Automatic annotation (TrEMBL):
UniProt-recorded name of the protein: Polyketide cyclase / dehydrase and lipid transport
Species of origin: Malonomonas rubra DSM 5091
Pfam families: Polyketide_cyc2
Length: 129
């Protein structure tokens, strides 16, 4: 299953939001904190996230294609994939890919996609304003 959202902002800006662990609690409804030695993830990164119910879980970035995709495991289970499809320099599509077992998580992914769009599009408005 996939949840997608077209975003009227440069793909680079959206990608930076996606890989910035300091931003995960801002846009991710299920993440309240991140314990990670760096700010930006890359292939093989590992750390911990604190979930909305207060539990800490280990994560590992299992797939990473610069400016295109990253996927991870959380608590040892395959979790959401994060795909970015550029549509020129000023627009893109964000796609969350969910494993079958996580279908109920689609509503949370929709909320996350909307938050990311507001963040990226808001930054664009600030630059133009």
């Amino acid at each position: 299953m996939q949840v997608s959202r077209r975003i009227n902002a440069p793909p680079q800006r959206v990608w930076e939001i996606l890989i910035d662990t300091e931003q995960w609690p801002v846009w991710g409804p299920s993440v309240t904190a991140v314990d990670f030695p760096k700010r930006w993830i890359e292939a093989g990164s590992a750390g911990r996230i604190k979930t909305a119910i207060g539990l800490w879980s280990e994560f590992e970035i299992t797939d990473f294609e610069l400016m295109q995709y990253w996927g991870w495991k959380v608590a040892g289970l395959t979790a959401t994939g994060h795909r970015l499809i550029a549509h020129g320099d000023e627009h893109c599509e964000l796609v969350f890919e969910l494993p079958f077992i996580a279908l109920p998580y689609a509503l949370i992914c929709r909320q996350a996609a909307n938050r990311i769009a507001r963040m990226a599009e808001g930054e664009k408005e600030q630059e133009n304003g």
